[in-house]
């Protein structure tokens, strides 16, 4: 016996010599930081291959989608069953999740053995045994008559096609049950339960133990996005961006990926790091050539690896006086638990355990033998921890790069007998990870309740998501329009167009159909210099437009933009028009044209009644303007009065036009088929060339005249009540003019952001978004700008950029799932706007076709406006809707590049052409 001498011996030179001797002998098992970094890079490369659709089949790291799309958010609740199968015994659990004031999880469980003959026998017998144990558990708890949801943790390599379907790729961990590989294990379990016939359960999810570990820890720490198992086997999972997961449709949000990293190296990529001992381990395993990385790390092989080293060293006369024993030579007799005991550094208990274990193997160890054996164990387990840290480093770098974060802060949920029971493994793993990724703050959270609680949590999350999704869709469905509803909107628009054109019904019509006295589109012979003034929002433009005809037909423009202060918009009319005239004077001076008197076209984008081309009586302000003394007045007169007050220049106002007419004229200069103008920006409106015989407010039957529809007011008499929602009503009630411009409020840029904000407020109040926590900023009217819709719906915009927009709105703790939902809300609201606009436009083009009694009409719509130009999908959806609702019209959209200001100058040019030709 040497126990009494060990303490004294421990500090002698002999100890140092033994350690050096083993270190030298096992040189190839000791890996440098450079080797580990290189290994990490190799693993990351293999991850990329596993994520790619084309490269996945040949990748050793399979990166299997799990269809788990969310980690717990703390609002989960209910009773769930869990079944945890991953080794020679399995657990059945009842998990009660409650949120009454504080998150709580209560669990009852029972462990059942799986006899060896079932592990390697017939697959149907194995699943029958599992069903019998489930029945026993339910009976003991008196819940056999309840149909509870169940989460199934099945810890073997599987290919999942959905959350409740998992095909076993290959057995590991000593299992070899026939007829299971290549089959869906959920179906096999359901079949076994059905065969019994005395109970029923709802199998909602099937997951891997790594996913279960991540979900268990994710319930306690919402930063947890990695699951790691180092036990009988080893594996890891993490939350990957959907855009990188080519094996699954869709690129929104994240999904947990089961790396199946145990198979890393099966393609030969670890050959330079594997030793003869690793090759011997592999040759003697149940699956030679498979799971090579796992065989260098996990508990199933660690003890055996130590045994092989001890045997070889003994045979070479380096240990135990060269004497082996039958137990030392017997495969599996040096258990991994021996390694845990031997490496216990507390009060030299490790060396005492070493002596005891070696004697148990029939050996007669010396003090040197005990020190050497301990050192062998240290080298083998340290290599395992360091290999594990290299692969984990690759996963951490992937997540950090996905988030474009300078510094990643994350949590790794960990489980497994090696991690939990080995006295040094965790410390070595953590230390090396921090050395390899110093730019990541990693917390390691030990899973106390195992992966079975995790499977219940996955089930709870799936139930929460399904319930929340159903509730969200119920709300969003009120904002989705059917084809029948859109056809009805088109029909009602046609009806209001007729009422607005007719003298008798014009006053009662919501769509006013105002004559513009523009009787012709450009014919290409227009020429000269013209001024244009474009007023329609919070800033306006003054332009000099040079129109050239002939072979070198062209339009040259110079312009300057001026702001209109808020107090001027809502002050007196005199102040507003004085400000406009001062800006015109500044522009003429800027252009070196002080004192010039050029023909001027005035684009005035508010509802006006025109009696002639150069007279426009303002009916009402829109778009936030409130200047007094203007409504009911001729805006050309107000402009001329302001010029007279300055006394230093004069204006020849030839035409006053609406921005829609300006847009139509601009596009008409490029395309003679353009006979419709459309604005979808801060507000919305349309104009088109109507037959004079139908324009009853103006004398004459010959030819055509452009009609300014003022369609924003469509719906003011209840025509849109049945497609309007509570969110539209909330926006309308708090607007500057409740009950007015109802169509515009469902379409235009001034209001869409506010509609979205109201939906988000509703979802948050219901606990369907932002975990029910509202930011003060989101409570502010107008804070969710319509430009956010365009940005959020951009196909190029990653969800992390959506989150940055939400953070700007004070929603600092928003999740990836929140970003997906916000994007969906934006999409539904903007799609409805585009479809409503398309329904109105379908009514217009169909009317032109019918007016001309054509079987088919070819027509171009000139379009302008920030929403139309900047939103990534608006134009496509609008055109699809027009073509669907007006199939006999071949409609093209032409974007107005130069705005309605150029159009005003072109109208002046057309007017001057007609005047010069004696047709005035």
Please provide a written account of the structure.
By secondary structure, this protein is of the alpha/beta class. 44% of the residues lie in helices and 19% in strands. It has a 6-stranded mixed β-sheet. The N and C termini lie far apart (125 Å). The model has no long low-confidence stretch (mean pLDDT 89).
What does this entry show, briefly?
β16 and β17 (554-563) form a beta hairpin. The mean pLDDT is 89.
Shape summary: elongated
Q: Helical element count?
A: 30
Note the gap between the termini: 125 Å
Measured on Cα atoms, how large is the radius of gyration? 38 Å
Low-confidence stretches: none
The residue-averaged pLDDT reads 89
Protein structure class: alpha/beta
- Number of DSSP strands? 26
Keywords:
alpha/beta, 30 helices, 920 residues, single chain, 26 strands, six-stranded mixed beta sheet, elongated
Summarize the topology.
Blueprint (H helix, E strand, L loop, with lengths): L2 H8 L2 H13 L7 H19 L12 E2 L12 E8 L3 E10 L5 E10 L2 H4 L3 H19 L7 E6 L3 E5 L2 E4 L16 H12 L5 E6 L1 H12 L3 E7 L3 E8 L12 E5 L17 H8 L15 H17 L10 H4 L6 H7 L6 H12 L6 H37 L4 E8 L1 H5 L3 H12 L3 E7 L3 H28 L5 H19 L12 E2 L12 E8 L3 E10 L5 E10 L2 H4 L3 H18 L8 E6 L3 E5 L2 E4 L16 H12 L5 E6 L1 H12 L3 E7 L3 E8 L12 E5 L17 H8 L8 H6 L1 H17 L20 H7 L6 H10 L7 H36 L5 E8 L1 H5 L3 H12 L3 E7 L3 H18 L4
Parallel strand pairs: 2-5, 5-8, 9-12, 12-13, 15-18, 18-21, 22-25, 25-26
Antiparallel strand pairs: 1-11, 2-3, 3-4, 6-7, 9-10, 10-11, 14-24, 15-16, 16-17, 19-20, 22-23, 23-24
Helix pairs in contact: 2-13, 3-13, 5-6, 7-16, 8-9, 9-11, 9-13, 12-13, 13-15, 17-27, 19-20, 21-30, 22-24, 24-25, 24-27, 26-27, 27-29
